[in-house]
Amino acid sequence: MTTRILNVELGSRSYPIRIGSGLLSDPANFQALRGRRALLLTDTNLAGHHLNRVLETLRMEPSQALVLEPGESHKSWDQAGRVLDWMLQAGLGRDAALVALGGGVIGDLAGFCAAVYQRGIDFVQIPTTLLAQVDSSVGGKTAVNHPRGKNLIGAFHQPIAVIADTRTLATLPPRELRAGMAEVLKYGLLADTVLFGWLERNLDRIMALDPQFISETVERCCAIKARIVGLDERESVSGGPRALLNLGHTFGHAIETYSGYGEWLHGEAVATGMCMAAELSHRMGWIKAAELERATRLIGSIGLPTLPPAGMQPADFHRIMGLDKKVKDGKLRLVLLRSLGEAVLSADFDATALEATLEKFCVAGTGGAGPAQAIAIPAG
Ligand code: NAD
Ligand code: GLY
After folding, report:
1. How far does the centroid of ligand 2 lie from the alpha carbon of residue 204, in Å?
2. Nearest residue CA, atom 32 of ligand 1?
3. What does the pLDDT read at residue 375?
4. pLDDT-based confidence at residue 75 (cuts at 50, 70, 90)
C-alpha cells in the first residue's frame, strides 16, 4: 500500500506526517531518527502489541523504552517528573530524541517532557489511536493535566516527524475507535462538508478499518489540521483559526473534569460537546434544524454519547468552563457553527440560548445516558 505524506509547513519547524498501513516495519519511515540516540515512551497496552516491532525496526534495546500505566490519569505532573528523571538517568543529551508510541496521553506527555528537557529536545510521534492519528500527534500541543482542569500545564513543541501506521488501529478497543471518530467528525463539521458527506456514506467501511478508507480518513483530517496549524501555530489569543479545532471541546472538557479524568473518554466528551455546540448554534439562528439533526444523527450512529453525565448541572458547566483557556477578559468564547462546515469562535453568543442549551442537555442527561450506555447503540 502506498504511503501518504503530508507536510506541516512551519518554516524551520516543518515536518512530515507519514500515513499508511504497515509503516512501523520499515526503517525508511524513521529517517528523522537516523544516527540519533533515542529513548521511547509508551504504555503497557502498546507493550503488549506494537512495541517489539518498533524496537526491532529502530534497533533499540528494551531498556531504551519506558513503559507507563495507560490512561488519562497518568497524564500528570508526577508522571512527567518520572519520565524526566529517567531521561536524566539515561544521560540523554540535547542531540537525542524522544519517541512517543501510543495515543494522545503518551503523545502529550512525551511531547511535554521533550519540550522542557534541557530546554527542549526533538521528539517523534508514533500515534496508535485514531484520535492521536487525526489530531493530537499533529500540531505540537503538549501538556499534562492538573486537578483544576485538563491540559493546564503545557507547552507548544512540534514533533520532527509523525508516523501514523493505520495497521496499529486493529488492536484498538472498539470504544477507543469510536471516540477517535468524534475528532474525525469534528473536521467535517467545522471545515469540510464534502468530508462530512463522505463520512456519512462510508462510515461502515471506515469503522471496519478498510485499509484504503481508514488511510484516506486520517489523511483528509490531517490535511485540515496541518493547514490550520500552518496558519496559526500557537492558537493566538485574539482568536485565530486554530481555536476552531476546539469545536465541542469547551463543553467536553467540562464533562471530563466533572466526571474525573478517565471516566469519559476525551472523544466521547467531545462528541457530546459537539451536540451541545450544534444545539446552541441552532438556537442562535445559525445552523438549520436539518443540519443539527444530521450532525447529531451521525454522532449517535457511531455509538457516541450525545448527553452529559447523569447529575451534571448547568452550574457545573459554568463553573468549569470559566477556567477554559479560551476565556478572554473574563468572557467565555465558544466555537459554534454558522453552518455545516463553517465554524466561528464567538464571545457574543446569546446567554439565554446558552442557558436553554445547558438546561435541555442537563435535564435529558439526568435520565442516565452516560458513555457506557450510549456506546451500546449499534453503529450504522
Ligand atoms: P489514550 O492515549 O489514553 O489511548 C487510549 C487507550 O488505548 C489507552 O488505554 C492506550 O493504552 C490504548 N491504546 C493506544 N493505542 C492502542 C493500540 N493501537 N492498540 C491497543 N490499545 C491501544 O487516549 P487518546 O484518545 O489517544 O488520547 C486522548 C488524549 O489526547 C487526551 O489526554 C487529550 O487531552 C489529548 N489530546 C491532545 C490533543 C493535542 O493537540 N495535543 C488533541 C486531542 C486530544
Ligand atoms: N486539538 C486542538 C488543537 O490541536 O489545536
Report:
1. 26
2. 105
3. 35
4. very high
C-alpha cell belonging to residue 180? 477517535
Active site residue 266: yes
Q: Residue 90's pLDDT is what?
A: 97
* CA of residue 92 to ligand 2 center, whole Å: 29
Return the CATH architecture of domain 4-171: 3-Layer(aba) Sandwich (3.40)
Name the active-site residue from 216, 235, 279, 291.
Answer: 235
Q: Which amino acid is located at 215 in the chain? A: S
pLDDT given at position 148 = 77
Given 150, 178, 253, 294, which residue is catalytic? 253
CATH 1.20.1090.10 fits 174-367, yes or no: yes
Domain ranges of the chain: 4-171, 174-367
Phi, psi of 373 (to 5 degrees): -80, -40
Which atom of ligand 1 lies at the shortest distance from residue 141's CA? 41
- In order of 64, 98, 125, 159, 224, the CA distances from 277 in angstroms are 44, 37, 30, 31, 20
Q: How confident is the model at residue 380 (pLDDT cuts 50, 70, 90)?
A: very low
pLDDT greater than 70 at residue 324: no
Query: Any residues with CB less than 8 A from the CB of 302 and at least 6 apart, and which?
Result: 178, 181, 182, 185, 203, 207, 271, 379
| CA–CA gap between residue 11 and residue 114 (Å, rounded) | 20
What's the pLDDT tens digit per position in 87-123? 999 999 999 999 999 999 999 999 999 999 999 999 9
Model confidence pLDDT, tens digit, residues 158-203:
999 999 999 999 999 999 999 999 999 999 999 999 999 999 999 9
> What distance in angstroms lies between residue 142's CA and the mean position of ligand 2's atoms?
10
Contact 111, 80 (CB under 8 A): no
**Which among 42, 52, 108 is the best mutation to test ligand 1's pocket, defined by most ligand atoms within 8 Å of the CB?**
108
Residue 118 has what DSSP assignment? G
- Any idea which ligand is nearest the CA of 246? 2
